[in-house]
Design brief:
This protein is mainly alpha-helical. Helix content is about 65%, strand content about 5%. Helix 3 runs antiparallel to helix 11, helix 11 packs across helix 12 and helix 12 packs antiparallel against helix 13.
Length: about 600
Amino acid sequence: MVFCDIGTSVYYVPGILYELVGTNAPFFVLLTSVGFVLISIKYIEIVERTPNGGGVVAIGEMAFGERVGALGGMFITVDFFLTCAISSTSGFYYLSSVFPTVASNVPGFACLALLVLAAVNIVGLRESARLSLVMAVASFLTNMVVLVVMLTSLDLEGWKTLFSLFSGFRELGMRELLVGFGAAWLAFSGLETISQLSPVLRQPVKRTAMFAMVGVIITILLTSPMLTLLSVAKVGANASIPGSERFISDLAAQTNVQFLSTAVVFTAASLLLFAANTAIIGAYHVFLKLAELHYVPRRMMRRNPRFNTPHIAILVATIVPIAIVLVTQGEMGVLGDMYAFGLLGAFTIESGGLDILRWRDRKRGWVFLVGLVPTTMVVVAWLVNIVEKPLATAFGGGIATAGMIYGIALREGWIKEAIHHIPSVSREDLRRSERGEAHAPEIQAEIVNLAMAADLKPLYTSSTLVAVRGESTGVVAEALARVKGMGENALYCIYVEEWPGMLYGKEDPLPSEEGVQSLTSAARQAAAAGVQVIPIWTTTYTESEGLARAARELEVNCLVTGISGRSLPYRVFRGQVLKKLPKLLPASCRLMVCD
């Protein structure tokens, strides 16, 4: 997933840098590669220190205080917004080389794609990590083929021409060197993804993060500098190539290898759109973290009653990038300039924050001293971009400042107090309070979690577990018939609350209204039949995994469930329970499916 985010930069950075610094682009990418490696190593420790996620928000809060953490959240949110915009736009620029009709309205197609991604995230995409792995491997292998074919076709003069591109920096003044250095960091955006993934990394987290980042470092160093060098040498110097939005596919077209250019186009487009999707997820998880700190409204944490996803946060994370694409009309140079502010601001807080934490922990040896190098590099790059790119400063600084002002006002209660003084709002609050106090509590089942149900096993004899969702009268009746046939007097009844999304926040899931009603209905039906029900509520990323885990822990020999009534899109995105269950259930547990 990290490669899906950072690995996409190679598809648009060479062209953006070429328009800015010409043939010196490869030199600046190679120069910033040193900082990229050092920052990547620091992210391993950042992940270890923030096992619950939060990334720049968590590190900023630990090192500098809550408000700096919130400011870091604003910076990385700007970064995620621009990632969505630039990745979706770049993806369709690549597709336009195969489908010319796309070229006439790239911004429109990019906005449509972002709307589709918003819908997918609201439903809750499954198997995202595996899908990203497939995309990353396909992209990496395709790029390596392009590199091998191009490098093996070079003669001695060709190699001399390549290396000559590294000599041009000697003619640059200090200002040009600083501008190129600041702009080249765009090639390594996306590292923040690893810190957002920390809650779902395999234990031990540090070891998993280390393997992940070593893989990212190796694959990026193998592709980004050399692809930039070759594309600038072969494509940038070719006046017949229209534009710089798709340098890598134009480079592949010069290999004369059949279908290689098309392969680059489709792997690039799919990976870029997936990077946009990852950015949407990252943005809404930052919103959830900021909502915990009360810097954005708590309603950002509200979950869709059907899909259990934070739909409001997802919509906000999508609407802003769409607005950016429409305003800029998909101009890659403008988007690249705007990108730098949030990216380097977040890097500064995270890298500098880790240095502060190391100092406090008295870890002041060579690791601390080496860690100061990338901090210095990103601070210099950020200051240069603030001065040299007023549009990026105005956009990123404006969003961050407005967000902080709003967040502080919200956290301190100024907004709430001002709204509450509006007479109509005050009267409505009073009416709601009175209605709530007068509402009689409904009879509900005494719900327990899976661990509590396992503790209750000695008190109740049951070998049957029934899965309920909605009105499951027929399914419960079959389970009750089995209980009586087995001469038992109790029935385990479970509702699995799916908790979708690739990344998880710190907030705890709560039983939904559907879950409570499903268990309550089953308990009443069982009580009428004279059977004791143990109503269980549990949560996991997919229903099939939750049911299989419950069957193992409760040691039942039969799981009774119904045929899914979900729609086709729901089954595609959320998984097919009955297809996966037989593979996950213990060998001793039978599966009874009722119509």
